[in-house]
């Protein structure tokens, strides 16, 4: 290993990135954009949710409660129901996303300081809006009557995520895709531009080549991570309950793992186009669908669960959620870190095998 | 001096063959190149010149036969060959998005050139590109690019230099300068292996080999080739030899 050679390669690679606005944009702007889009899209924009009402109590107390709902920013009046069928139809038609059902004995019970229950029927097909509606509704009801409780019935999608788990998971998914995309071009580009022919005529070794290629993108990956974490903390207000070193350690290893996947793809693919598309499909799809970010892994069939265990993003999503929200390392963090390390080692070994410093097979 | 040269040839090729599937690009060729010699490689397109050079540079594996470059076996330890050769490929293969200076700095770093700043400065001067260091390489005219490639290929002081059509697309003045550089390098002991399509350039070589369909069909000094084939010019020699192959 010649350190000077690694330095030369890394420096050259950084110059490529700086000269090419597209790769710089992909490296730094797209993660921010994705985080803002998905972050807000998935978690915060709930206002004026159309709310229908079935007021069986029909008293001053119940009308006060309804006014509290419609006066809030979260809800707006969207119709009145008179029967169970009405409530179902109004949700099915999409005219209302939630229906507030106030029982006949509501006023009496509240007056007697007895526990009273109102019912909120929610369209869960948009789980995010549903989840936030419930939170708001719960707050409004408790404000109106100390003794009131809310019973919730969710239509269409009973299983729902908790609020803040989205952002840490999102950081994992974005880093997953961006890191792989970053390195996916760097070897294929040399072959496509013909510059590899000159490079392989030099005494440069495979290891020097790969390390020199990885270092600049690792720096970009870490910058992305820092930006994403700062956005999570200060823009989205996600609490960081766990330790910062834990976050840095786990993320640092994950970025390395995914960069390795990208560089393997770049080495195996013959063109930049193919490489970037492969990187997107290989990291984004499993990362999004199977990592537990969107769908609960526990609810998957055994075979699929086994597959999720082979995907680095699965570990990263759960570790980030744990570190951010629970503040602990989870049950056995060393196991996850060990997996990520082993995964990277296998991928890099495959890359070394696949990388040929000659023109045979081209 | 001549005796010493012949004692230790810079390149020894014995029955060297390269096949790509069913196609034989280089077909059982054998010859030696002496130290400090300018060795010209002629042949029609696709005759196997580039394939031979690539094998000798250690970037293409021979299918069979043996090649010894600077005492190193190209089949067994191609990576060792790369330390003391310079290679300028047929297609421009420096980085278009880097500046002239950045390209040279990069290759100086890869080769571990000492006094890198000095070496890069010298290379820029030798390529006649002083004052243009910060220009982006992709925007340069072909002639400048070729000059830069050559400067980059010799910056680390290789003992054997492989030039694959270094002067294609280059104006006559630059071409003459190129050959001045090549001659100077040879005088300093560098062995230069060069392919070309220009017969004027072939005249500058100490010895020539002519390839046709993967085989070496003639080898010798320009004068000897003319005598042997009873022709007045190299062009006539070349055309008659290559034509024979077509007639057969």
Description:
The complex is a heterodimer of chains A (362) and B (248). Chain A has 15 helices and five strands. Chain A has helices at 3-19, 21-43, 60-71, 84-92, 106-111, 127-144, 166-184, 188-193, 195-199, 206-235, 244-268, 272-289, 302-308, 312-326, 333-354; strands at 49-55, 75-80, 98-102, 116-123, 148-155. In chain A, strands 2-1-3-4-5 form a five-stranded mixed sheet, with helices on both faces. Chain B is 39% helix and 25% strand. Chain B is built from ten helices and ten strands. Chain B has helices at residues 2-7, 49-56, 78-81, 100-111, 116-126, 142-154, 172-187, 199-203, 222-229, 234-247, and strands at residues 11-20, 23-33, 38-43, 64-69, 72-73, 85-88, 160-164, 191-195, 207-212, 215-220. In chain B, α4 (100-111) packs across α5 (116-126). The chains are: A alpha/beta (362), B alpha/beta (248). The A-B interface holds A 2, 4-5, 7-9, 11-12, 15-16, 19-20, 193-205, 357-360 and B 54, 57-61, 78-79, 82-83, 85, 87, 89, 91-98, 102, 105-112.
């Amino acid at each position: 290993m010649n350190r000077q050679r690694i330095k030369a390669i890394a420096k050259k690679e950084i110059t490529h990135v700086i000269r090419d606005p597209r790769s710089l944009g992909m490296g730094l702007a797209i993660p921010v954009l994705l985080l803002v889009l998905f972050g807000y899209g998935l978690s915060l924009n709930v206002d004026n949710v159309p709310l229908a009402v079935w007021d069986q109590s029909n008293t001053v107390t119940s009308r006060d409660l309804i006014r509290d709902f419609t006066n809030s920013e979260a809800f707006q009046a969207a119709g009145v129901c008179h029967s169970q069928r009405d409530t179902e139809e109004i949700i099915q038609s999409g005219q209302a996303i939630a229906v507030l059902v106030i029982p006949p004995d509501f006023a009496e019970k509240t007056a007697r300081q007895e526990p009273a229950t109102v019912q909120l029927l929610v369209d869960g097909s948009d789980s995010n809006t549903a989840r936030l509606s419930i939170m708001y509704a719960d707050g409004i009801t408790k404000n109106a009557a100390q003794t009131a409780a809310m019973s919730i019935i969710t239509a269409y999608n009973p299983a729902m995520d908790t609020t803040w788990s989205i952002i840490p998971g999102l950081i994992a998914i974005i880093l997953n895709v961006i890191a792989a995309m970053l390195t996916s071009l760097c070897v294929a580009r040399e072959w496509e531009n013909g510059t590899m022919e000159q490079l392989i005529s030099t005494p440069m070794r495979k290891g020097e080549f790969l390390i020199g290629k990885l270092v600049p993108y690792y720096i970009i990956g870490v910058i992305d991570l820092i930006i994403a974490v700062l956005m999570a903390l200060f823009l989205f207000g996600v609490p960081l309950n766990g330790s910062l070193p834990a976050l840095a350690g786990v993320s640092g290893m994950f970025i390395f793992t995914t960069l390795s996947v990208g560089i393997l793809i770049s080495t195996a693919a013959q063109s930049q186009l193919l490489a970037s598309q492969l990187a997107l499909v290989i990291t984004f799809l499993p990362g999004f669908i199977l990592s537990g970010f969107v769908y609960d892994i526990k609810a998957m069939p055994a075979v699929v669960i086994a597959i999720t265990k082979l995907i680095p993003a699965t570990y990263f999503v759960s570790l980030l959620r744990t570190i951010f929200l629970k503040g602990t390392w989870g049950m056995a963090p060393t196991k996850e870190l060990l997996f990520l390390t082993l995964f990277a080692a296998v991928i890099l070994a495959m890359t070394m095998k696949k990388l040929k410093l000659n023109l045979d097979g081209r | 001096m001549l005796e010493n040269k012949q004692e230790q040839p810079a390149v020894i090729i014995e029955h060297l063959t390269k096949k790509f599937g069913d196609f034989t690009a280089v077909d059982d060729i054998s010859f030696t190149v002496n130290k400090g010699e300018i060795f010209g490689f002629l042949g029609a397109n696709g005759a196997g010149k580039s394939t031979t050079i690539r094998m000798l540079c250690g970037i293409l594996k021979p299918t069979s036969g043996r090649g010894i470059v600077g005492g190193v076996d190209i089949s067994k330890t191609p990576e060792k060959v790369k330390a003391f050769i310079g290679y300028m490929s047929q297609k421009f293969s420096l980085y278009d998005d880097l500046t002239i200076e950045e390209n040279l700095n990069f290759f100086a770093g890869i080769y571990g050139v000492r006094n890198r700043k000095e070496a890069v400065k010298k290379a820029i001067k030798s390529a006649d590109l002083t004052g243009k260091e910060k220009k982006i390489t992709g925007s340069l005219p072909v002639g400048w690019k070729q000059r830069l490639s050559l400067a980059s290929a010799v910056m680390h002081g290789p003992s054997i230099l492989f030039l694959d059509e270094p002067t294609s697309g280059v104006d006559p003045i630059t071409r003459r300068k190129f050959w001045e550089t090549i001659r100077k390098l040879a005088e300093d002991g560098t062995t230069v292996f060069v392919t070309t399509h220009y017969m004027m350039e072939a005249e500058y070589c100490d010895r020539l080999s002519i390839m046709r369909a993967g085989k070496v069909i003639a080898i010798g000094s320009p004068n000897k080739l003319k005598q042997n084939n009873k022709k007045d010019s190299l062009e006539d020699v070349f055309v008659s030899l290559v034509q024979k192959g077509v007639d057969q």
